[in-house]
Amino acid sequence: MGLVFLVIYIVYRFSYAWFCNPSSCVKCHEVEPYVVSWDESPHSTVDCRACHEGRGPFHRLDFTVRGIRDIGIHFKGTYSFPMKSVVYDSNCINCHVGDFKPELEAPTMPKGHAKLIKNGVGCNNCHRDTGHKNGLLVDVKFESLEP
C-alpha cells in the first residue's frame, strides 16, 4: 500500500511541477496567445499559479486536475475561444495588500477597493486586461462581421 501511495505521489508531484510554468502551458497551440499576452502584461513576472491556483489544502491538486483536463480538451479538440480559466480574486487581494510572499513588491490597492470587494465586485470586472488581453482571438472574428 505504501508503494502504491509513493508512486501516486511521485506522479502527482511530477505533473504539478510540469503544469506550473508558462513553458508547459504554451505547448498547446490554443494557449499560446494567452502566454504571449501574459508576457506583454504588467504581470509578466508573476507565475501562472499566482493567479490561477487557489489557496488552501488542496490548491495544488485542483490546479493539477484542471491542467490534466485542459490536456484532454486539447487532444479532443473541444477547446473554444476565449478559453475558460479560473482566476481567484483572493490571489489579487493577497498580492495587492502585501500578504503573498513572492509578490511583496506589488502596488497596494487604492482606497475604495475594499468597499467594492465587500459588495461582491470581482477584480476582473474592472481589470480584465491586467493578466491577459481581453478578447484574445475573438476581436478579429467580430471585426470581420462589421459592415
Question: In words, what does this structure look like?
Answer:
With 147 residues, this protein is mostly helical. It contains 9 helices and no strands. The protein is globular, with a radius of gyration of 18 Å. The protein starts with a helix and ends with a helix.
Average pLDDT for all residues: 77
Overall geometry:
globular
What is the radius of gyration? 18 Å
Q: Enumerate how many helices there are, as a single number.
A: 9
Report the β-strand fraction as a percent range.
under 5%
What is the number of beta strands?
A: 0
Order of helices and strands: HHHHHHHHH
The rounded distance between the terminal residues' Cα atoms is 66 Å
Residues in helices, as a percent range: 40-55%
Spell out the blueprint of helices and strands:
Elements (H helix, E strand, L loop, with lengths): L1 H18 L2 H4 L6 H8 L8 H5 L6 H18 L12 H8 L16 H6 L4 H4 L12 H5 L4
Helix pairs in contact: 1-5
Characteristic key phrases:
mainly alpha; 52% helix; 147 residues
Describe what is shown at a glance.
This protein has 147 residues and is mainly alpha-helical. It is built from nine helices and no strands.
